[in-house]
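During the second year of the project, the team shifted from modelling isolated chains to modelling whole assemblies. The rationale, set out in the original proposal, was that interfaces cannot be judged from single-chain predictions alone. As a representative example for this report, we include one of the complexes processed in the last quarter. Its constituent sequences, exactly as entered into the pipeline, are reproduced here:
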Amino acid sequence: GAGVSQSPSNKVTEKGKDVELRCDPISGHTALYWYRQSLGQGLEFLIYFQGNSAPDKSGLPSDRFSAERTGGSVSTLTIQRTQQEDSAVYLCASSPMGRQGWEKLFFGSGTQLSVL
Amino acid sequence: QKEVEQNSGPLSVPEGAIASLNCTYSDRGSQSFFWYRQYSGKSPELIMFIYSNGDKEDGRFTAQLNKASQYVSLLIRDSQPSDSATYLCAVNPPRFVFGPGTRLSVLP
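Output from the structure prediction step:
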């Protein structure tokens, strides 16, 4: 596709259940990011993948959160034993890697996660 | 202290006025600074970046950077109702740490 694709667009789950959120980045983009945005708040960095390097997991809020990126393309963010405070919009972004070491982020439409 | 701070607003300005959005950051080693715009219910989109002290102009937008004061701002000249959005400041690529955003409302 032309842009970053995220699925599902909405996810309602019960407290304690596990959820998987998917991100399909723009073809050829080597960098992939996950952010979380709670209602009325800014973007909270979760994790960053760049090529074959070890991911920067420094933003993951707890060990219930994990992410993987298969084949340098699609990424899955998994939240185990969801809690109500996990309710937020989860945004994925991808980026080509420029010569200066960064490029602008292209965001997907996000997954609205609601934990009941 | 949070890495990136912004006034949450809302900042209300009349149509045609100059809107001034401010951002401060804590990491003195930060080199590159970004302004993203986010319309309600939409995803953020990049509008400007700056990495040298001083001003950078792009159409109606001017980014200003003062590394000594750890301060970056965004000026929007001739504000339009279509500029009403939340403006997010970001620093420290490639990680990109975002501020909480300032909500701007341009009144017709």
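The interface with chain A takes residues 6, 32, 34, 36, 43-46, 49, 88, 90, 93-101 of chain B (CB under 8 Å). The longest strand of chain B covers residues 19-25.
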